[in-house]
Design a protein that fits this description.
mainly alpha; 9 helices; two-stranded antiparallel ribbon
Length: about 290
């Protein structure tokens, strides 16, 4: 009689191993996320200085441009409308500095040797990168929330549901900028070169997002670059949200939504574009980061 040896069923041990590995990855990712948060909130000087630029942009340059609108025949209401138009872009500007600083920390950790110590940990390298990006996006969102607290000065109503929606959209924009900084950081090894490249890249990316002027008033070549910019859709999505809660729609043509030809891009698709860009860029950065020695 032939005895058939049955292979033990792959049961609890395999499942437990998978769950244990997932828990370890989650724990390490949370530690990296927490490190980014601690580093930022301990440096209060950097926090204050990085808030200075968007505040000056909105309440100095913005008021000056608004007065120019009013003086050109638009009246006082046109001035208020322009500040309201500018506000979502300033929120993104407030999130920009802490978002791209994650890229700087990656380059600095590589130069100081700390990154090599992180890479020998028995976890996926993509987990380390994801923890850094989520930490940078969280810090950037917190900083944008400080600017959001002044929303009443430009006519944005103080409503909990409105602020929750704006913070969610700001977090998505912050993640996109953080991941973009990480893509550059895993490619460039010198900190000076990284800072130069990011300065050259993030300036046009921000100003070609429709934050200061409506896309419909731009020349064709500029409008094409603006429509190819994922940050454009984050800024326009926040404008959609602000207008949905505003008591009276502004009278100017500043708030025409972003359009592809004659078709206005809906809010859901705008958020999907920003989220899709973040996912693709994160995948590219993770693949490059996995090859880092």
């Amino acid at each position: 009689m032939t005895r058939v040896l049955e292979r033990p069923a792959a049961g609890g041990r395999t499942v437990e191993g998978v769950l244990g590995r997932a828990a370890a990855e989650l724990r390490v990712g949370r530690m990296v996320w927490r490190r980014e948060m601690i580093h930022f909130f301990r440096d209060r000087t950097r926090m204050a200085v990085s808030l200075l630029q968007p505040m000056l942009f909105l309440y100095v340059l913005g008021i000056g441009l608004a007065r120019l609108f009013a003086g050109s025949g638009g009246g006082t209401r046109a001035a208020g409308d322009y500040l309201l138009f500018l506000f979502p872009g300033v929120l993104v500007m407030a999130a920009q500095a802490p978002a791209i600083s994650v890229g700087s920390s990656i380059v600095w950790d590589r130069q100081s040797g700390f990154l090599r110590e992180m890479l020998v940990a028995p976890v996926a390298r993509s987990t380390l990168l994801l923890g850094k990006c989520l930490g940078g996006a969280a810090v950037a969102t917190c900083q944008g929330a400080v600017v959001l607290a002044s929303a009443g000065l430009v006519g944005v109503p103080y409503r909990l549901d409105l602020f929750a929606a704006l913070l969610a959209e700001l977090a998505l924009a912050a993640l996109a900028m953080t991941v973009l900084g990480a893509v550059v950081a895993v490619t460039i090894r010198r900190l000076q070169t990284f800072n130069t490249v990011l300065t050259v890249l993030m300036g046009p990316l921000l100003f070609l997002s429709g934050m200061m002027f409506p896309v419909g008033s731009m020349p064709g070549w500029m409008a094409g670059l603006t429509l190819a910019n994922p940050i454009t859709y984050a800024v326009d999505a926040m404008r959609h949200t602000v207008l949905a809660y505003h008591a009276q729609r502004p009278s100017t043509m500043l708030f025409d939504p972003v359009a592809w030809g004659s078709w206005h891009v809906p809010l859901g698709l705008e958020l999907a574009i920003v989220g899709g860009f973040s996912a693709v860029a994160l995948a590219a950065a993770s693949r490059r980061f996995s090859r880092t020695g």
